[in-house]
Design a protein that fits this description.
Helix content: 40-55%
Strand content: 15-25%
Number of strands: 7
Structural class: alpha/beta
Shape: globular
Strand order of the largest sheet: 3-2-1-4-5-7-6
Number of helices: 8
Number of domains: 1
CATH architecture: 3-Layer(aba) Sandwich
Radius of gyration: 17 Å
């Protein structure tokens, strides 16, 4: 087993442990998602949030990103058991998650009720309306396609206004030009929406080129990297710097 694989497995264990007070479902979901979603590993191995201390997580679910970053900094600071090729993880000063699902918010709040260190806050709110504050990084993973096109643009406009000149946005999207794999992704997302909100919702999806053009218009310079390794989906992470 490589050092990186061992680190990921250890982080999955320590990050998912936050969710034990929130119940078996929350704990098992955290273990599966953190182990299987390549975005979490990439955020650390590629230093995508390196040096960021005030993170806004829009559509945060039960707060997996917060647990992941707390576990990472704890492992790095405690015994430096960290892959040599990976940069130091971010040390959170504050994390604000925004989630519209009441059960998810409840699980997140139970998970972090006793967490020490960073100021952690999970808000029950709509990402279209909530105050974004003054983050130095914004993360939106697999969320914007649940909004209509005008709302997507308004959210990105507000994100750019909230970020400083050196701020970063991590935006994961599906590519509507992705053929069968995109169809699989879309079907799963519709099912998730049905389970979480009790309603079958239309999804507003864009081709990758259109997402990049939208970010440019909103004042970002973005690079794209595939972010669906090991899954049947066709997701892309757009790493966008405030231009």
């Amino acid at each position: 087993m490589s050092a990186e694989t061992a680190t990921v497995e250890a982080l999955v264990r320590s990050a998912s442990a936050y969710f034990r007070p929130a119940g078996r479902f929350a704990w098992h979901f955290a273990r599966g998602k953190l182990a299987g979603d390549p975005a979490f590993r990439a955020i650390l191995s590629q230093g995508l949030l390196r040096g960021r201390r005030q993170i806004l997580d829009l559509g945060c679910g039960q707060g997996l990103l917060a647990a992941w970053l707390l576990a990472a900094h704890g492992a790095w600071a405690r015994d430096r058991a960290w892959p040599a090729a990976w940069p130091a993880p971010p040390q959170l000063r504050s994390y604000v998650g925004v989630e519209i699902s009441v059960p998810e918010v409840r699980r997140a709040r139970r998970a972090f009720a006793a967490a020490a260190g960073a100021r952690l806050e999970v808000l029950h709110a709509d990402i279209r309306d909530v105050d974004y504050g003054t983050p130095d990084a914004v993360v939106i993973l697999d969320v914007l396609h649940y909004l209509d096109f005008p709302a997507q643009e308004r959210v990105l406009t507000r994100v750019r206004a909230a970020l400083p000149s050196d701020g970063v946005l991590l935006l994961r999207v599906g590519d509507a030009d992705g053929g069968l794999r995109f169809a699989v992704s879309k079907a799963l997302d519709r099912t998730v929406a049905l389970v979480r909100r009790g309603a079958w919702r239309p999804l507003q999806c864009r081709a990758l080129a259109d997402w990049r053009e939208l970010l440019t218009r909103q004042g970002f310079s973005a690079r794209a990297q595939p972010m669906s390794e090991g899954t049947p989906f066709v997701n892309t992470l757009l790493v966008a710097q405030a231009a």
